[in-house]
Design brief:
The chain is α/β, with parallel strands linked by helices and 309 residues long. Helix content is 32%, strand content 21%. It folds into two domains: 124 residues, Rossmann fold, CATH 3.40.50; 168 residues, 2-Layer Sandwich (Dihydrodipicolinate Reductase, domain 2), CATH 3.30.360. The strands form two sheets. A seven-stranded mixed sheet has the order 8-9-7-10-13-12-11. It has a six-stranded parallel sheet with strand order 2-1-3-4-6-5, sandwiched between helices. Strand 1, helix 1 and strand 2 form a beta-alpha-beta unit. The longest helix has 16 residues. It is globular.
Length: 309
């Protein structure tokens, strides 16, 4: 039975991981009393005792945790931004070509960012297949529920006194320095980071990421892109979906509570919209972390995950 430690227990990602592990008979959790949750020695001991440790921490604390785990055989799955482009860490998006095998053999895994997961799912296969040039300057729009902003943002949105001010969607990342941009470019093999427009809205969970393209961006038709996605995504967690839209609308919240992802294409031969739809706390965070753990353990990837409606 695998021993699992979750370093950092207060955030939404760690809580979702706890939920996904609650009914697992193949893992046992190493728990720290609340008084020792931030104690360096207690954390070091737990990190060394675990077979797998999830780092659900701010970036600086995640870097510290990696140092605390030095010389251990523990597999670290870091959900922070700290190591997503680090050469010693394997990027934890298993659906990319050859990535599943790298994850299975790795002791250091960087869980992808939520916005980045959507962008990479759409762009990486097209760059890999050579139908989208690495030097294209892409644009990306992403709508997310407020749970992606952490405890403070959740509290703000659920404070009835403030709700009126937060009812409309809000654009952020205005400086074009969003923390997910480096991994979006590097993992897709792009020469430039995309122009990125993230928006948070007044619903709890769910995300849709959109990459608009024109005829000039591509060397193939929309139908050929569909075939690329169908061939590329053959597992249960990420799949191409023909009927993602309902009555001409796509809801950013329709995948809430799930750990899978749907890919779709809309538009015409002149203007195309690539759309990725998922839960920012699912395939965008905790679901991906559990999937990576399952790969390391050699069990079915969907074990403990909520897949499908």
């Amino acid at each position: 039975m695998a021993k699992v430690f979750i370093d950092g227990s207060a955030g939404t990602t760690s809580l979702r991981i706890h939920e996904r592990l609650a009914d697992r008979s193949d893992v046992t959790l190493i728990r720290l009393d609340e008084a020792y949750r931030k104690d360096i020695d207690a954390r070091r001991e737990a990190l060394h005792a675990a077979d797998i440790a999830f780092l659900c921490l701010p970036d600086a604390a995640a870097v510290e945790a990696v140092q605390l785990a030095t010389d251990s055989q523990t597999v670290l799955i870091d959900t922070s931004t700290a190591h997503r482009t680090h050469p010693d860490f394997t990027y934890g998006f298993a659906e990319l070509t050859g990535q599943r095998e790298k994850i299975a053999a790795s002791k250091r895994i960087a869980n992808p960012g939520c916005h980045a997961s959507g962008f990479i799912s759409l762009v990486a296969p097209l760059v890999e297949c050579g139908v989208l040039a690495k030097d294209r300057q892409l644009n990306c729009f992403s709508m997310t529920g407020y749970s992606g902003g952490g405890k403070k943002m959740i509290s703000d949105y659920e404070n009835t006194a403030l709700l009126n001010d937060l009812r409309a969607p809000r654009m952020y990342g205005l400086s074009q320095n969003h923390k997910h941009l480096p991994e979006m470019a590097k993992i897709c093999g792009l020469n430039a980071e995309p122009v990125f427009c993230p928006i948070v809205s007044s619903y709890y969970a769910g995300m849709e990421v959109v990459v608009p393209l024109t005829r000039e961006d591509l060397s193939v038709t929309a139908e050929e892109i569909k075939e690329i996605y169908r061939s590329y995504y053959t597992g249960e967690i990420v799949c191409f979906c023909e009927d993602m839209a309902e009555n001409g609308f796509i809801s950013a919240g329709s995948m809430a509570g799930r750990d899978d992802m749907q890919i779709g294409i809309f538009g015409n031969e002149d203007r195309i919209l690539l759309v990725s739809q998922f839960d920012n706390l699912g395939k965008g965070a905790s679901g991906a972390a559990i999937q990576n753990m399952n790969i390391v353990l050699g069990v079915k990837e969907t074990t403990g995950l909520n897949i499908g409606g």
